[in-house]
Amino acid sequence: MTAPITVPPLDAATVAELHRRYEEAPKAESRTRYQMILLAQQDYNVPQIARIVLRSEDTVARVLNRFLAGGLDAVPRRSPPGRERRVTAAWEAELLRVTPVGSA
């Protein structure tokens, strides 16, 4: 069980920016993470948020803690660490072009 996390009330400018980022998030996972912050602002606790957004309590707690530590810029999902892709987008597009559909 996670310790209770309280997100303090946000000023109007931050709430407006949070709503903007939620509406304009290019990826569903980032949108879900902004939704977690919005729900926390409505006094939902971690287990309730986890049930609503269909994520684990640990994930919700991690997102809320990242927000508390780093603000809105810390909320979106980060790319996993490691080596950069060796296959370029152009090469991948060429592979898709020359590979017959349905081949294994």
Shape: elongated
Total E-strand runs: 0
Q: What's the mean pLDDT score?
A: 89
Structural class per helix/strand content?
mainly alpha
Number of DSSP helical runs: 5
| Alpha carbon gap, first and last residue | 45 Å
What would your notes on this structure say?
- 13% of the residues are buried.
- The protein has helices spanning 12-24, 28-41, 46-53, 57-70, 89-98.
- It is mainly α.
- It has a domain at 12-74.
- The longest helix has 14 residues, at 28-41.
In terms of topology, how is this protein built?
Layout: H1 12-24, H2 28-41, H3 46-53, H4 57-70, H5 89-98
Helix pairs in contact: 1-2, 2-3, 2-4, 3-4
Brief sketch in words of this structure:
With 104 residues, this protein is an all-alpha fold.
List keywords for this structure.
about 100 residues; mainly alpha
